[in-house]
Specification:
With 293 residues, this protein is an alpha/beta fold. The protein has one domain: NAD(P)-binding Rossmann-like Domain (Rossmann fold, 3-Layer(aba) Sandwich), CATH 3.40.50. The chain contains nine helices and seven strands. A seven-stranded parallel beta sheet has the order 3-2-1-4-5-6-7, with helices on both faces. Helix 1 crosses helix 6 and helix 4 runs parallel beside helix 5. The N and C termini lie far apart (37 Å).
Amino acid sequence: MAKKEPRQLQGKVVAITGAARGIGLATARACAAKGMKVAIGDLDLGESQKAAASVNGAEGFALDVTDSESYERFLDGAEERLGAVDVLINNAGIMQLGPFLSETEATAHRQVDINIHGVLNGMRLVLPRFQARGTGHLVNIASSAGKGGFPGGVTYCGTKHFVVGASEGILAEVRDLGIEVSCVMPVVVKTELAAGLQETRGVKHVTPEDVANEIVSALEQPRFDVYVPRSVGHITRAMAVLPRGGREAVGRALKADKVLAQVDDKAREAYELRASRSEPSLNAGEDQKQLTK
């Protein structure tokens, strides 16, 4: 079967949440390099505008993904300045680590609010716009942690399982409406969010640019499963056919059970402190910025 020609991205409008740094900013740059018009959303307006200034033709907006009114203003602003949004990338998220029984209720709520409700708000607001035009591409950033549970990050893993499951459900609902859905599942990415995490055997950490390039690839050649690196997809599919005992044994052999449980606390100190002060509110203040991947 002949391979389909890549879709042209030139002139398309992409809105990216949590794009002032990390994966979001790398993706903004990769999309701009393809000629796309980019809307950068982040809780801190100054940071989003600063990031936009480093991306050709981008616009920066204030965005609290947990607030549906703020999210709607972001999409409206993007469409007013750049044109109808063709692609939404739900990227904003936080990850706080530690034993589950040591996790505070506030920490759990914070991760659920940003990682889950932020994605739900984006889908709820953008899909009617896509449906009205009969076209659009929804990209949800999950994690390889959305395919397995790992000690030390119970709540985080749960939120990413949700993103995978919700993305699969949405795909089934919109597949006949001209709307594309992609779910991005990277391994540990070299951003502040992953500070202090060790590598597993055979699976090295990837860069934000690696993730950005795979996202652009999925926009050009639409597909649902976007593993970064792609080899993780093969591992995941192979693991799925094993009984639970076999999967757990392989995970231990790869030291996957240590990735979130045995971390360098000193290296993570700055991130964890910033995350603990991260409140999903545009009025949270300079030291309470919503974190991004």
